[in-house]
Amino acid sequence: MQSRVGSHGTLEEGGKDPIMKLANPARPLQLRLLQFLLLFLGVGIVFSFFSMYMIRYTGGPQNVVAMSEPIILPCVPEPSSLESWVKTPLSLSHKMNDSELFWRASFVPRINTYPFKRVPKIAFMFLTRGPLPMAPLWEKFFNGNEGLYSIYIHSLPLYQPDFPPSSVFFGKQIPSQMVEWGTMSMCDAERRLLANALLDISNEWFVLLSEACIPLYNFSIVYRYISRSRFSFMGVFDEDSPFGRGRYNANMAPEVNITEWRKGSQWFEINRKLAVDIVQDNIYYPKFERFCRPACYVDEHYFPTMLSIQSPQLLANRSLTWVDWSRGGAHPATFGKADITDKFFKRIFDGSQAKTHRLSF
Predict the structure, then answer these.
(1) b/e code 18-39 from CB counts within 10 Å (16+ = b)
(2) Is this prediction's pTM over 0.90?
(3) Phi (first) and psi of residue 154, to 5 degrees
(4) At 344, which helix (H) or strand (E)?
């Protein structure tokens, strides 16, 4: 019987022999992947050799690293070393208000010894209205004693000093505010001077002066006398009169009782501990600000009373500033050109006040 060949022949006989040969796409894909990996490896090796060459001969990568430093910096930079805390401030200009300044100045090391060489200095603080007419004399006083003193000037805010760059007073103005005689603004100015001076950790003694003061001895005598004394020099008198206890306000109790009320000269010399006590005070300040107003002159009572309560053993109960109250009135005598004679200086050095070693006036 003849086999039937037709349109369906392949279907009839295809179930026995036909072999379907299909292409396999997996092998070319694997070859391409392998070629890509080999190319990447080759590029990596070339780049490695190039980098080693740059490091060895050109220093190029260091420049790349320097450029990749983060651009976001911390809001408050941390001190990089002890030096940033103890070095003398390069400028007395700053943007701190009084609260910030007093807080910063009140930092006190709890260890008495210093881990660096410290030469103690005297801070001369000038509380002025404007110019320093005695500046030439003070220039001679300070000459040759660099490193043993610091200078700070608090004047009226609008006053612009014109000291030449060669002057010891150049750049010594601190940020100042208005001062009204007989009010707490006077003590605020003195605290401001103390706080700025305390920022220099080398300042150990603090002398308050006016534009009318002059030195009566040379620098070496003044430095030796102050540095060797175990006392600070501030008048603290219990004056039973209308100008002493008569200015006391009973509302100041219990912080200040009438038996603790003291009076003294505005001009003083104190050590670092007492300077910090004055700057950080928030106990006596509110009482004096509120209840000691003219005719209670706060600059004559605040510091003497507070320090005589807290540290009476550290006070000499006298000032180093020579003043003349013999003419009466609310202010001591001032002296002009006609007063400056040999007889005048003999009166200063040989008089009763000379026995207490007044160093300036």
Answers:
(1) eeeeeeeeeeeeeeeeeeeeee
(2) no
(3) -115, 110
(4) helix 342-350
